[in-house]
Structure formats: structure tokens, C-alpha cells
Amino acid sequence: MSNLKPEHAARLNPIVQKWDGFVAKVNQRVQDVLNESHEGIDALIAQHATDPGPIGTAMQAVQSRFHGLDQKVDDAWDKISEEFDEITDDDDLPWEDYDAVSAVVDASYAKYEQLREHIEMQWNWLEMRKQADWARRLYEIMQQESQQPVNCSQCGAPFQNTHWWAAANINCPHCGSLNSIQPGTASGLFFAGLGAHALSHEQAWNEWMAEQQAKKYYDDRRHQTAGDHQHWLD
Asked: Would you say the C-alpha torsion 171, 174, 176, 181 has a positive or negative sign?
């Protein structure tokens, strides 16, 4: 802004201030949604760990809120960019001043892209963290399930399930009858559902983020070179 002539600064300053104020409000709203979601989803995990319905519905609702914020940012930028266009497309704008004006517009557009990326990544982070928290709760219940004896379908005698993480056919140690055993709800959700994957995603979060940043860096280049491709692979 320091490179602008006073007449251009007078036109651009109100637009930039309005945009910066909007960006600050959205960032605060993102933080509010994160705080509210943590508390609400944690309560559902505590109460309904073995029922994917309530937790899944809540996660979808939170995702919709993030999508709504992203759409508001998109719509707001469309309006702001029209105001910028009125200045950059002005026939009275001297050519020698165009670069300085465009630099201000480009800086505001960069904030637009950063804000949308922030919204997306905060949702990704929340989804990863809450699924990992859910997985930890499932693991606790799973340990309890694994210690529960099962009763033989023929003689009724209890015996220890030695294959508690998945469905299996186990012979009764008392009468030899073959019993078809199903895993407990938490065990099934942990091993065949989201549990193990969620904890793995949490552990690999920094590497996943680095991959996303590398891909964005690569995709932002309009004409990628062999060197760009190798840098992305690295």
C-alpha cells in the first residue's frame, strides 16, 4: 500500500479494510466451530461409542458448517473482486500505476486462498482428531470385550474366545463342538471399521500434511517440469 499514490489508496483502502475485517471474522468463526464441535462430539463418543449413527450424523453436520463457511468466503470474494475490478479496469488508471494497484489486489486474493485452505485443513484436522479419539474409546471397550468368555452353543460351557478381533469358528474345549463366534461391536468397529485407520492417520498427520503441501505447490505450477515432478515425489 505504501507504493500507491494517494488517490489510488483512497479508493483501495476501504475495500481492503472491509475484506480484512471479513477474513478476521471468518477465522474467529472457524475457531468457534472447532471449540463447539470438540465438546459436542466428545460427549457423543462417551455416550455412543459403539453406535456409529449419532457420531456420524454429528460429523456430517460439522462438515456442513465448514462447507457453509467456505461458500460464504467464496461469495464474499466475488463481491470484493468486483469492487477491485472497478478500479483495475478504470480507463483513467495510468498504466504506470497499474502494477502497484494490482499488487494490492493480488495480496487480498492470496488471503482469500489462504482462508479457504485454512477452513479445509481445520475440518480435516478436526475429522482426524475426533475419529482418533473415537478409536481410542473403541479400543478401551474392545479390551473389555476380549476378556468376556463365550458359551458353547452345544454344551453351554463358557470358554475364552481366542480370536476376538474378527469372526471365527472355534472348537469348544469342553465338548469339541464348532462354534461360530462374532466379534464384539467395539472390536468389529475398531479392526474392520475406522479404528485402526484413524489412529494410523493421526500418527501420520505431519507426513500427510507435507504431502498435501507438496501437491499444492506442484499443482500451482501451470507448466510443470521434470524437476517439479521429482520435487513433488521427494
From this structure: negative
User: Strand 168-171 relative to strand 158-159: parallel, antiparallel, unpaired?
Assistant: unpaired
**Tens digits of per-residue pLDDT, 10-25?**
888 999 999 999 999 9
What pTM was estimated for this model as a whole? Answer: 0.82
Q: What is the pLDDT of residues 111-164, one digit of tens each?
A: 999 999 999 999 999 999 999 999 999 999 999 998 989 999 999 999 988 888
Q: Do 215 and 234 meet the contact criterion of CB atoms below 8 Å apart?
A: no
